[in-house]
Amino acid sequence: MPIMGPNGPMDPGAMTAGDMAGMPADGFAGATAGDMAAMPSGAMGGMTAPMMEAMPPAAMGGMDVPMMEAMPPEAMAGMGPMHMEMMPPAAM
Asked: Is 4 helix (H, G, I), strand (E, B) or coil?
């Protein structure tokens, strides 16, 4: 299942922080590492803790430093140990 926005599937490569902020909390339930790698880092500015909780840990494989820097600190509250295990060390 792709990343789902309020109006259906989203193109991760075209997402903005505003797009992400308007998504349902479970919109990332189908995210993959490829989706995350394709996403502009600035889009992470709209991430919330419930979205992070819904994201499969394997999707963290597509994260990088600019994405982590753009993510609001409160969104990191949604990360569990499996999310941290799957994140590339360079992104930490």
From this structure: strand
- As to burial, measured by CB atoms within 10 angstroms (0-12 exposed, 13-18 middle, 19+ buried), residue 5 is middle
Residues in the chain: 92
The values of phi and psi at residue 9, to 5°, are: -60, 145
Smallest CA-to-CA distance from 59 within 44, 76, 26, 37 is with 37
d(CA 5, CA 21): 10
pTM over 0.85: yes
Q: Which residue has the tokens 């060390």?
A: 89
Residue 5 DSSP SS3: strand
- Taking the chain (92 residues) in runs of 10, the rounded mean pLDDT of each run is 87 94 91 94 94 94 94 93 92 86
